[in-house]
Specification:
Elements: H1 7-16, E1 19-23, H2 30-37, E2 43-46, H3 50-58, H4 60-66, E3 71-74, H5 82-93, E4 99-103, H6 110-116, E5 121-125, H7 131-134, H8 155-164, H9 168-172, H10 177-197, H11 202-213, H12 222-229, H13 233-245, E6 249-252, E7 268-271, H14 274-280, H15 286-290, H16 295-313, E8 321-326, E9 332-339, E10 342-346
Parallel strand pairs: 1-4, 1-5, 2-3, 3-4
Antiparallel strand pairs: 6-7, 8-9, 9-10
Helix pairs in contact: 3-4, 4-5, 8-14, 11-12, 12-13
Length: 372
């Protein structure tokens, strides 16, 4: 088993919170990690089991009395009525870490969590394997104030990483690529999306997934996504919110200020697992992807997703925000890190010969009142 960087945060949260909730899309390894971490006396309950799910929904009081803490309840989104009973139980017993909950689809759950478990629950997001986790490197928070020169990664190796992605089962076993991702798509759409959101047309949602994946690294345009998928713009907005709330897609917001009046206001789309993204778009091997016209978008997606994973996994209090900048004149800065009233601009480029002309748009930030 690959050691997960978020382990220490789960242990720490269990010492200070009565309930720990792990969110993350299917395939990231939530269940595997919690079963590895659990104490001997901690029960494991999966609501994928229809008998247990029916009991949890029809008689939540009996369920909580039967499956007493310490306990893991996997896929809690299938029985949200349990939340109020968990609240009563933890308030009565007042013990830390009694409940470990997981959720693959949080968009229907979080309102119930905020209402029932406010002040009692610690929420942690879990993503697919990061580069550091895959290569057994220590996860230390990227600090824009302390840029260090690291070892070079060859382009071939880098695009092998991008092509494969970090889904736990796919990365750690010899399962065939098509088999894994076909099953993954089927499970995601049929088990999570259709059951929980009443998406009626599975084929249309699959086309929508491909449409979004083909735009990773691009500015969000609902109209073009909707046209590709054969749906209306309102449906495209609703379905994209599903991908974002599933943590499959991250929307990087633009940096806006009163001094930068021509800035684009739409976010940029990034798939959080480049392997899943490359499969949806039909790339057959890393070499073809590396030599394609969209390789720069995949490199950018990889960097942004790694920064998000790093920020999420590292056990550190350094809290900064990520943005990008683009204006109506076509001037763009790929990444802005905003911390302590200072803007740190970064350019992400696929090139063997970087030069200063690539950062010429950084000067736009002089118009702001922030330090650079």
């Amino acid at each position: 088993m690959i050691e997960r960087a978020i382990t220490e945060k789960i242990i720490k949260y269990s010492k200070f919170r009565k309930v720990v909730l792990i969110t993350g899309y299917i395939g990231v390894g939530k269940t595997t990690l919690l079963r590895e971490l659990k104490e001997k006396e901690r029960n494991y309950i999966s609501l994928d089991d229809l008998n247990l799910r029916n009991l949890a929904n029809e008689d939540p009081k009996l369920f909580t009395e039967t499956y007493t803490p310490k306990v893991i309840i996997d896929e809690i989104q299938y029985a949200t009525s349990l939340l109020s009973y968990i609240k009563l139980d933890v308030d009565e017993k007042n013990k830390k870490g009694d409940y470990w909950l997981t959720v693959s689809q949080k968009f229907q759950l979080m309102k119930g969590v905020s209402e029932s478990l406010a002040g009692r629950v610690g929420i942690l997001e879990m993503f697919s394997l990061s580069y550091a986790e895959k290569h057994k490197l220590k996860t230390t928070l990227f600090d824009p104030r302390k840029i260090e020169k690291k070892e070079n990664i060859s382009p071939n190796h880098l695009f092998e990483e991008i092509f494969k992605g970090g889904m736990s089962e796919y990365y750690t076993t010899d399962i065939e690529r098509k088999m894994f991702f076909d099953d993954y798509i089927r499970t995601y759409i049929e088990r999570d999306v259709r059951d929980l959101t009443q998406v009626g047309n599975i084929l249309s949602f699959h086309k929508f997934l491909i449409s979004v994946a083909s735009r990773t690294g691009e500015v969000l345009n609902y109209n073009s996504i909707a046209e590709d998928a054969g749906i209306d713009e309102k449906t495209a907005k609703n379905w994209l919110s599903i991908l974002v709330n599933s943590d499959l897609v991250y929307l990087l917001e633009p940096y806006l200020s009163s001094e930068l009046k021509r800035a684009t206001k739409a976010p940029k789309i990034y798939f959080m697992d480049t392997g899943f993204c490359s499969y949806l778009c039909g790339w057959e091997n890393p070499k073809t992807l590396m030599n394609s016209s969209v390789s720069g978008h995949y490199l950018e997606t990889f960097v942004i997703s790694e920064l998000i994973k790093n920020k999420n996994n590292a056990d550190c209090d350094l809290n900064y925000n990520l943005y990008y900048y683009r204006d109506k004149d076509g001037k763009e800065i790929d990444l802005l890190i905003y911390f302590n009233n200072i803007l740190y601009p970064f350019e992400i480029k696929k090139t063997a010969t970087p030069d200063k002309s690539m950062i010429k748009h950084f000067s736009i930030l002089k118009n702001t009142k922030k330090e650079i």
